[in-house]
Design goal:
Blueprint: E1 5-11, H1 20-36, E2 41-43, H2 61-77, E3 84-93, E4 96-105, E5 108-114, E6 132-137, E7 140-145, E8 148-151, E9 160-165, H3 176-181, E10 186-190, H4 199-214, E11 217-221, E12 237-242, E13 245-251, E14 256-262, H5 263-273, E15 285-288, H6 314-335, E16 339-343, H7 348-363, E17 372-375, H8 383-396, E18 399-402, H9 406-416, H10 425-446, E19 448-452, H11 456-461, E20 474-475, H12 482-495, H13 499-510, H14 530-534, H15 537-549, H16 554-564, H17 571-587, H18 589-592, H19 621-624
Helix pairs in contact: 1-2, 6-7, 6-12, 7-8, 7-12, 8-13, 9-10, 12-13, 16-17
Amino acid sequence: MKDGFLKVAAAAPEIRVADPAYNAKKVIEKIKEAEALGVKALVFPELCLTGCTCGHLFYQRTLTDAAMEALLRVAEATAGSDMLVVVGLPLACGGKLYSAAAAVCGGEVLGFTARANVRGTVFSALPEGEIEVVDLGGENCCRAGSAIIYSADGAINGLSVAVRFAADRKLAVPPTAALCASGATVIAELSDEPMSVQSRRETLAALEADTKRLHCAAVSAAPGRGESTTDKTYYGLCAVVDDGETLAVSESGSGMAVSETDVFNLCGARIREQTYDGMSCRGADHCFWELEQADTALTRRIKREPFVPDGDLGEFAERCLTIQAEGLIKRMQYTNCWRPVIGVSGGVDSTLVMLACAKAMDLCSLPRKNIVAVTMPCFGTTDRTKNNAITIAEQLGAELRVIPIGESVKKHFETIGHDLNDHSVVFENAQARERTMVLLDIANKVGGLDVGTKDLSEQADGWCTYNGDQISNYDINAGMTKTMVRAVVKYISETTDDAVLAAALHDIWDTPVTPELLPIGEQGELLQKSEDSVGPYILQDFFLYHMVMRGGSPEKVLRLAEIAFEGMFDRETLLFWLKSYCRRFFSQQFKRSASADGPAVMSFTLSPRDGHKMPSDACSALWLEQRMPEK
């Protein structure tokens, strides 16, 4: 179970009502199908061995005895397998009738979990904390309870499977939180819900909300074809949902949903967010399930741009801009400085800041002329970026100032004794610091604020000059990764009614990311590209998400990157930039430790005050020396 991934599945076999022997055959067929796919935890619907529509036939001992015989055949079919199978059946025990979920593995029945919410059914609830002993025939018996957790810590640290019923989600206090507090990371959900016009949407929404809140995975199976259609239709909605994300869905009458849950990520999220701190662990019984160590082939989709949502970006873009604008408005109110001063370069970062500042002025009913857009051409400035910067300022209605800084920088070089032809870090940083000095001084002069343009990705890799673009009065890009910035700028370019602005925005989006600190070519062409030095930002943001935000090891991150960027980057390239990223992320923390204030746009931030915290002199050796397996 390499890197914490567990392959799970939910299946809805086509059954016959009140025919356990036939249904057992269908269940076994699905078990064999799942085994061939490498599934290690398989969930079937509630009352799958009889059908959930038997009504008062459940009172017939003939049916309940046949269901138990069918279960034993299913258990026998798992002999020699380490797959945990959870299947529903009626269980007559201790003078009561339960809708139960049996867990079987390795040819044995491990235990039964009884449904708690039995309103409107023929079944009884098993009181919390009570245990029934179930006779399996001969000298064999096992436990039945309301909370049994099946643990496989030996294979995946933190892997524990608990059972709940879909109906139990409707209780005032559903059992899921208590199960997760007791250690369950995967919830096997057995459902008896029929198909309705809202059922798919409502079920997936409920599972996504539950798993996000509790940091768990849910494997849910509902009855499919073969159930009685006297009053309702059943179509076998099966789903795998992991930490708020639906990974796989099948609704085909007799299908199977298969994917992989990331147990390490679930455990890490619980630790980071202290999800269950102070929550008492109600008496769940633990049963150990022997799962062999093995690699898990990944089929789940790995997004190339995990910080950017799929589909229409309208709401995403508007909310990003609103967060930035409202953050700036509060700072302007507090300081009584109502003139944003922005260094505009013709790049995506300063362009987004201009758009957000324009929104802030509109929200405050202030003229956009309050915005002071300053472009400061120097040795590395191209006509393309300069012209785009001017166009953006003019189309948004800002006050534009063009202040060449070349002579000032040359004078500074004379002062410190630096050769103009020595294009070292001194050559680059002097320009960045000169620009920051100009912006801060203009802000003082006009009674405004220098609004920073450095984004979250640049904070992470340190691609900014200390006391240059690293600092400002207020940094509204601080919560935005480069891929997020590009996505918002592209969205505005495609939706604005201003054709001139749209053309400039599109060209800016299409311009290579550059600090423009090294001289341009003889034909005026751009020679310095940020991604040549620090790596493609699509990779940087991928590493940031999976390694820093989610806590994945470099080995795991490389594995995910190989899947996500197949056909785009080879393994050697990915490994090179991953190691580079690890080095830079550690070595550049000193810049983040002195970051300006700025609003978080998502739950993750690198703010040294309430975001990711680390010392400026932490050692990166553990990450850099991690051995990467051969392909």
